Amino acid sequence: MDLSLHTSDIHQAVATALSEDIGTGDITAQLIPAENLAHARIICRERAIIAGIDWVNEVFRQLDPSVAVIWRVSEGQWVRPNQTLFELKGSARSLLTGERCALNFLQSLSGTATLCRFYADMVAGTQVKLLDTRKTIPGLRIAQKYAVSVGGCFNHRIGLYDAFLIKENHIMACGGIQQAVAQAHIIAPGKPVEVEVETFEQLDQAIDAGADIIMLDNFSPMAMTQAVEHTRNKTNGRVKLEASGGITNASLRSYAETGVDYISIGALTKDCKAVDLSMRLI
Predict the structure, then answer these.
(1) Strands 213-217 and 193-197
(2) In what order do the strands lie in the sheet containing 68-71?
(3) Among 89, 134, 167, 191, which one carries the catalytic annotation?
(4) Active-site option among 41, 135, 191, 253
(5) Mean pLDDT score across all residues of the chain
(6) With CB atoms counted within 10 Å of each terminal CB, which end of the chain scores lower, N or C?
(7) Active-site residue, 217 included
């Protein structure tokens, strides 16, 4: 994901986080004389991939631009337990006020990136791309999808606006796959059109209707292999296939080896565990 396209989202996410945390003011920080300076070190307590540097920088840019943020690691880097990630120098009040917001972003996004690398390693050597879903923390859609890419996985659609995903209820409401796909091409020509199918009959209907991507829902690995061969023979590779539903850690590799183009996994963003970080004044 190109973060340069989403700088306004980073700004807004940080502004919201600071507002909900600080409110009318950090009353505990007011115990410290305003002129006091401090030097802090932020340490990672476990092995992880770091993601979220831009969000941390933005926290202190908005809170107090005079605070120096000195990074000792790079985005996407593996770090070891007890490794220093960055240091802060400046107003003691500002360092303590911004600590939690900054670490919340960094621990959550690093957790997402680390989990994604775990999944990416499971399918290494295959052609499949693991995709995230819209099962993200509200307000952190862009941030989490960015972390997914840092971890070596890929982004599905960002939201409901940049691609069609026509599922069972859409198909029923539209009167069929053919009608739904045809209407999609009219509403937003050029936008990717994906259709979810549950049978080989529906697979052929989606191909004939002109879908760009077809999601094979709850197909077994054997059926998936047959669907891949059938679709490639029929479309000469024009239509891409995505696997979804019923895929576990134990079966992921089997699905990846079917030759399917994509596998979507909601766990990439909804099951991530925050990385353990701590800040200590020096």
Answers:
(1) parallel
(2) 68-71, 83-91, 37-44, 277-281
(3) 167
(4) 135
(5) 96
(6) C
(7) yes
DSSP E strands in 107-179: the ranges are 129-131, 164-166
Q: What ranges make up the beta strands (E) of the chain? A: 37-44, 48-49, 68-71, 78-79, 83-91, 129-131, 164-166, 193-197, 213-217, 240-244, 262-264, 277-281
For the question of residue 26 being annotated catalytic, the response is no
What is the model's pTM?
0.93
Task: Tell me the one-letter amino acid at 261.
Answer: D
- Residue 61's CB is within 10 A of a number of other CB atoms, namely 15
Residue 107 near residue 54 (C-beta atoms within 8 A): no
Q: 21, 64, 204, 217: which is the annotated catalytic residue?
A: 217
Q: Compute φ and ψ for 76, nearest 5 degrees.
A: 85, 0
Spatial CA neighbour of 177 closest among 194, 155, 158, 190: 194
In the set 41, 61, 89, 100, the catalytic residue is 100
Q: What is the pLDDT of residues 99-155, one digit of tens each?
A: 999 999 999 999 999 999 999 999 999 999 999 999 999 999 999 999 999 999 999
Q: What are phi and psi of 268, to 5 degrees?
A: -55, -35
- Assess whether 240 carries a catalytic annotation: no
Q: Is 276 a catalytic residue?
A: no
Whether the Cβ atoms of residue 153 and residue 177 lie closer than 8 Å to each other: no
145 is catalytic: no
The domains located in the chain, with CATH, are: 3-120+272-281 (3.90.1170.20), 154-264 (3.20.20.70)
